[in-house]
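Q: What would this chain look like folded?
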Amino acid sequence: MTKFSSGLQLFKGAVLAASLVASATAVSAADMTLRGASLFDNDHAYSKTLIRFGELVNEYSGKEVEFDLRGNSELGIEPDYVNFLVQGSAIDYAIIAPSNLARFAPSVPLMDMPFVFRDLDHWNAVLSSDVLAPLEEILLEKADLVVVGYAGGGTRNLISNKAISNMDELAGHKMRVMGAPIQARVFQALTAAPSAIAYSEVYNAIQTGVVDGLENEAASLLQYKFYEVAPHVTLTGHSITVRPIIMSNKTFSGLDADMQAAILKAGKDAGAYGRELESREDGEKLQQMVDAGNITAHEFADRATLLELVAPVQDAYAAELGAEDLLSAIRAK
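A: My prediction, written as structure tokens:
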């Protein structure tokens, strides 16, 4: 199959509607191996989602593909995964944060821009629809990457070495943010002092006073033990994560139509599985750390003010990218 670009959504609809996945003859695992990568161990929602993805591909295709998932950052961190996926080398699939795809499509971080989702219902409505199709087409055209589904579901809060519960305490707060420009702009508008630091360096950066904290979801706070250096969590609920399940098109385009159909169906269903899993586990893990005395959770007294300050930043950023219609479509869902 030749490389395709703007026809991705039509292709997805056609192959999924065709229901071609049930009649394939089973083949041995030795005939095909698809390689995945995860930052986390197999107990993390992202890894569980990718494991489920592999199971569903085999169920829907009737084949016995080997899915070789390497966890615990064995193959590096997400920017490394992106490079591998674009090159079509080392790995075939992974879950990637939108900020790590921004160099190919600057509008991709709109997927989980801070405060873009009103609540979990709004978030799920967007990810269950075709609202993000224009971003999928850009990633295919610019980076040769196929979005096969959407995981995520962690609610991101502020994590700090000091208590923050109002605008005065937030002012000047030195915090790590992801590399996408919108992340820094949003938190600058909220009077904090954001800086982009590699994820692997955050713990030491807090420990040495380079930053006072970061923003993240409960699973990462627990996995990387950030609470050891930043035991305060401010419940801003500023983001609900969107984590595309990405496959290299160099891999995808080399597969037959039945297997492509199985992968797209499996990606959609694994994404839904991962979203439910992570959103449920997120609250459980936060409470686990509170109960263990690892963290102290603080409500934020002026959240309405945060929303007021952020809206013009979101509008201006979307205008710069020519993505006003996309932002409007997300808000309207």
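The CA atoms of residues 218 and 332 lie 28 Å apart.
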